[in-house]
């Protein structure tokens, strides 16, 4: 349903956001359908709703921002989800990417460092009727070992390498997507878990991400 009749003049619509996502090469039809079913306006801070359908990051406090939707979709597409996967997400934010993953996989375990951000994400997901998500608060660099192994892992923060616990918690044959770099200048990489460890499969896109902090990431500020 178009929002153009009730939206302010020149305000981007959900269809505008969908076109921006397709313009960067996202073509997976299940993912595009998940985007159509997930209103980004329900996952932005109060007062930022007019920016929800712009393809831009939005500040959410604690020097954190939401991932740009086209970038998030590119990363999710790199996981090659088919619908049965047990997924680990590092960096819940306000839950928009989590919601997309939940619509595309069997279930999602998601970790957020900041308790109030995680609680808001939980409220946002509940209002959308999304129940197949387990929210955790803490250091995402160590993963969630008590729920491992995972079929797919997505990391929404940058580090020069994949933290060993995340690689170790990925099932053989599973995929991991992470921005690799120092924070602020990354290559988002897709990896495949093989019998001998992680194998880089391709560069998905250049990007800029906040740093991954924690025991297996950058030291805490």
TrEMBL record:
GO molecular function, one term: protein-L-isoaspartate (D-aspartate) O-methyltransferase activity
GO biological process: methylation
Alphabetical keyword list: Cytoplasm, Methyltransferase, S-adenosyl-L-methionine, Transferase
Stored CDD domains: AdoMet_MTases (cd02440)
The keyword Transferase belongs to this UniProt entry's keyword annotation: yes
Name of one Pfam family that matches: PCMT
Record EC number: 2.1.1.77
Subcellular compartments: Cytoplasm
UniProt family annotation: Belongs to the methyltransferase superfamily. L-isoaspartyl/D-aspartyl protein methyltransferase family.
Name of the molecule in the record: Protein-L-isoaspartate O-methyltransferase
